[in-house]
Design goal:
With 258 residues, the protein is of the alpha+beta class. The protein has four helices and 16 strands.
Length: 258
């Protein structure tokens, strides 16, 4: 029996935007902001990402890992409050009035933290037959390997094996396949694809030799429109990160003139 399309067709555009804005109220708006739009809250963004993670790793819908990583990079990480002068809010998430703003509410903070802990636990997973999958491009150290993610002109993922093992490394769907490069100890490897994952055989892995995956970070623009005020926000992306917004908003950099 195919999985119901609730996630793919029922959430996006109604309960969450591409960048991860989620309204506190749906249907009847109890808490509008100054423009009449529902205030937002970060926990629902984390919930959607967590559903995507479960569908990806428990139901084989691994393309949804792109949603997980985008929501973390584009919404949850930039909207975290970083203010050591206010210990009650430092490191928090919560309810917020600006669609691209900050908030600190304890139950929302706890929910987002719970989701991030789950994401961190599943950056790297091991199958029953011992194959290790790198599912998300974030830093982590496990008994089997160490992963470091770097973003510059291109995206670079550095994987240092601590044991010999077969590997699967996910490549985001938005990355142009002709831009993908894979190497071990700076020696190029042929690309063996299994869906969106690159496969490296156990015999090709050497303990301590760094495996490097590189791919492009294509730029694109999206527009997000608020449901009541119809205010529009023009977002510029590089890969799955927002690099600027016009008009200026709290959590993203201001758009630079050409």
């Amino acid at each position: 029996m195919p999985w119901p399309p609730t996630y793919r067709k029922g959430l996006w555009g109604a309960a969450i935007t591409h960048s991860g804005w989620t309204p506190h109220d749906q249907g009847k708006i109890r808490f509008p902001d100054k423009d009449g739009d529902p205030i937002g809250e970060h926990a629902s963004c984390g919930d959607v990402a967590q559903i995507a993670l479960w569908l990806a790793l428990r139901a084989g819908q691994t393309d949804l890992l792109d949603d997980v990583e985008r929501l973390i990079r584009a919404r949850l990480l930039p909207s975290q409050i970083v203010n050591p002068k206010n210990p009650r809010s430092d490191g928090a998430w919560g309810v917020y009035s600006h669609p691209f703003g900050y908030g600190a509410i304890l139950d929302v903070f706890a929910a987002v933290l719970h989701s991030l802990a789950d994401f961190h636990q599943h950056i790297v997973t091991t199958s029953a037959n011992g194959v290790i999958s790198v599912n998300l491009h974030f830093d982590i150290a496990t008994p089997a390997l160490m992963v470091r993610s770097k973003r510059g002109t291109n995206a670079t993922l550095l994987i240092t094996p601590k044991q010999r093992c077969a590997l699967r490394i996910r490549v985001p769907a938005w990355a142009a396949r002709e831009s993908v490069r894979l190497a071990i100890a700076d020696k190029p490897l042929p690309l063996r694809w299994e869906g969106s994952f690159l496969i490296i055989a156990r015999n090709d892995v050497t303990v301590g030799s760094i495996i490097t995956l590189q791919h492009d970070l294509p730029q694109r623009q999206t527009v997000e429109e608020m449901p009541i005020s119809h205010r529009k926000f023009n977002l510029t992306w590089r890969g799955d990160e927002v690099v600027s917004c016009d008009p200026k908003v709290p959590i993203y950099p201001e758009k630079k003139p050409l």
